[in-house]
């Protein structure tokens, strides 16, 4: 029984302690909320609002002041007492250990405090905006008035620079005066925020005027002076060149210049209406077009110099290339008695001659057009360059073919010399095998030697053909070279393998009596060696030696290579 009483007492004490801890937390939270309430309640909002009295307490300013004051009085007289009641309720709930209700009440207090803080922030923000607007308005309106006076002086002092746009610019400036008056009236009536809108609008218009005062004179200079001067220069240049027998109708320059003069009047009218966004990019385009025509006229001058310098000499160039091509064609007929040429190669001079005849007719027509002086020199230059390029291409092709014909005899002699070299290499291979101390030559090596000899025979036969097909000769020669060189390498490799086998067997003989596996491998190696199966013998001998000393194989290979080098 006592045990249960003790348990109950312990549980009650635990619950009491937990309740006290929770109550302490709630009391701390209520204290924090009360502190926030006091900060809001005692915030010197009316001292801040007193700054407004330095302004004109009329109109909008007066309305804003009354609105702020009433909103804050509502906070102090209604919302703060409500919060006090909620704080009192929360304290009672905590004292009675009604923690859930206390929590809900604390949340309500938090929301009410947030509303009060929001009102305070809005009032201060709007107040700062009003006071700041008044200060900015006072500074910026003076700057705008000064700019207006400066712009007015500029227009009066440089009326001629603005030409037809003068009247529109003056009207834009005149619009500033009623705006200044409206600003003063709004400021006097305490409507500082509305006055701020006037200042911002004037700032935008001032920037536009500033841009116009800078751009209008520049664009008018282009339209009234620079572009007309360029038009005059282009007309004079065209007239002088036509007097010098230049053909310029394809440029359609006269039509362009007439249209441009009409367009300049339209652009001037657009400037009078201050429609600069439509004028400025077009001026840039016109300047590019004028530069293009200058370049075209200069191109005609350069083209005439090129034609006069190269046209007359082209006749002799064509004749020289035709004579060269005919000589090569005759040489082909002579060479074909001794050497066989592919049909495509043999036709190179004939194709070249036909092409040259076409170019000759094109040149004659070009020469006629030059003398008639009814064609643009730029087109004549282009045609002359095409003819020149094609003639140079034909001459280069014929020169290459001529050199190839001359090299046929050289290629034949080179092939015969290489044939003799291969014969000697084959003979050296046979002597190498004959001098080598080997049991015999395997069938594979005999077959290689026979194949190499047959390849030599094929080359000899192809060199005896008339006419000689040098391409076929070189192909047979390549086959023979590959066969003989491969045979020579295989012979050297076989002789080296035989020496290695002998050394390996000699090394292994010392261990045959004590190692049965070595003895059996060496027996197989010796049997293969006697049957000329040298690769098999090398593998068996290497297996035997590897059992004894794996490093011995490498030492024996190095000794054999040194022995072969000293021979």
In words, what does this structure look like?
This protein is mainly alpha-helical and 567 residues long. It has 4 domains: 1-136; 162-274, no CATH class; 299-405, no CATH class; 436-566, no CATH class. Helix content is 87%, strand content 0%. Helix 4 crosses helix 6 (166-174) and helix 15 packs parallel to helix 17 (534-548). The longest helix is centred in the middle third of the chain and has 60 residues, at 276-335.
State the gist of this model.
87% of the residues lie in helices and 0% in strands. By secondary structure, the chain is mostly helical.
What labels describe this entry?
567 residues, single chain, 18 helices, mainly alpha, flat
Draw up the topology in text:
Blueprint: H1 2-41, H2 45-49, H3 59-95, H4 99-157, H5 159-162, H6 166-174, H7 176-188, H8 192-243, H9 253-272, H10 276-335, H11 343-346, H12 348-372, H13 377-435, H14 443-463, H15 470-509, H16 516-530, H17 534-548, H18 552-566
Tell me the fraction of residues in β-strands, as a range.
under 5%
The SS-based structural class is mainly alpha
- Stretches where pLDDT falls below 50 for ≥5 residues? none
What gross morphology would you assign?
A: flat
Give the fraction of residues assigned to helices.
Answer: over 70%
Give the averaged pLDDT, no decimals: 76
């Amino acid at each position: 029984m006592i045990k249960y009483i003790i348990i109950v007492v312990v549980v009650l004490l635990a619950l009491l302690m937990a309740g006290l801890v929770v109550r302490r937390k709630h009391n701390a939270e209520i204290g924090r909320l009360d502190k926030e309430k006091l900060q809001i309640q005692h915030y010197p909002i009316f001292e801040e609002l007193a700054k407004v009295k330095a302004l004109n307490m009329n109109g909008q300013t007066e309305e804003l002041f009354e609105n702020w004051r009433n909103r804050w009085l509502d906070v102090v007289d209604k919302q703060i007492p409500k919060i006090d009641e909620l704080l009192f309720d929360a304290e009672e709930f905590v004292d009675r250990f009604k923690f859930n209700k206390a929590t809900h009440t604390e949340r309500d207090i938090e929301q009410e405090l947030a509303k009060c803080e929001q009102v305070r922030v809005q009032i201060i923000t709007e107040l700062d905006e009003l006071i700041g607007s008044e200060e900015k308005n006072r500074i910026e309106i003076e700057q705008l008035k000064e700019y207006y006076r400066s712009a007015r002086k500029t227009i009066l002092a440089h009326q001629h620079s603005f030409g037809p746009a003068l009247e529109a610019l003056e009207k834009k400036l005149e619009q500033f005066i009623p705006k200044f008056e409206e600003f003063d009236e709004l400021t006097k009536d305490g409507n500082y925020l509305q006055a701020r809108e006037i200042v911002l609008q004037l700032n935008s218009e001032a920037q536009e005027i500033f841009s116009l005062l800078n751009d209008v004179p520049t664009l008018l200079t282009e339209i009234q002076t620079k572009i007309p001067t360029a038009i005059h220069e282009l007309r004079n240049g065209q007239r002088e060149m036509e007097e010098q027998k230049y053909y310029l109708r394809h440029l359609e320059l006269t039509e362009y210049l007439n249209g441009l003069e009409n367009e300049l009047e339209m652009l001037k009218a657009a400037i009078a209406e201050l429609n600069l966004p439509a004028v400025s990019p077009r001026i840039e385009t016109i300047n590019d077009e004028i530069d293009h025509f200058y370049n075209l006229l200069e191109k005609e001058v350069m083209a005439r110099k090129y034609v006069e310098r190269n046209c007359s000499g082209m006749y002799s160039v064509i004749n020289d290339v035709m004579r060269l091509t005919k000589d090569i064609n005759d040489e082909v007929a002579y060479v074909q008695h001794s050497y066989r040429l592919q049909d495509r190669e043999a036709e190179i001079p004939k194709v070249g001659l036909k092409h040259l005849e076409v170019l000759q007719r094109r040149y004659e027509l070009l020469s006629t057009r030059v003398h008639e002086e009814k064609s643009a020199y730029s087109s004549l230059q282009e045609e002359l360059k095409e003819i020149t390029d094609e003639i140079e291409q034909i001459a280069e092709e014929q020169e290459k073919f001529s050199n190839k014909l001359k090299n046929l005899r050289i290629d034949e002699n080179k092939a015969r010399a290489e044939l003799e070299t291969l014969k000697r290499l084959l003979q050296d291979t046979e002597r190498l095998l004959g001098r080598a101390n080997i049991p015999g030559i395997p069938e594979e090596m005999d077959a290689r030697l026979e194949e190499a000899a047959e390849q030599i025979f094929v080359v000899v036969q192809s060199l005896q053909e008339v006419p000689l097909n040098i391409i076929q000769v070189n192909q047979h020669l390549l086959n023979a070279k590959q066969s003989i060189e491969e045979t020579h390498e295989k012979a050297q490799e076989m002789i080296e393998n035989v020496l290695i086998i002998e050394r390996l067997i000699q090394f292994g003989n010392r261990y045959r009596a004590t190692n049965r596996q070595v003895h059996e491998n060496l027996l197989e190696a010796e049997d293969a060696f006697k049957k000329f199966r040298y690769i098999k013998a090398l593998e068996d001998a290497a297996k035997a030696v590897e059992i004894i000393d794996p490093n011995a194989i490498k030492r024996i290979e190095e000794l054999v290579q040194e022995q072969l080098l000293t021979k």
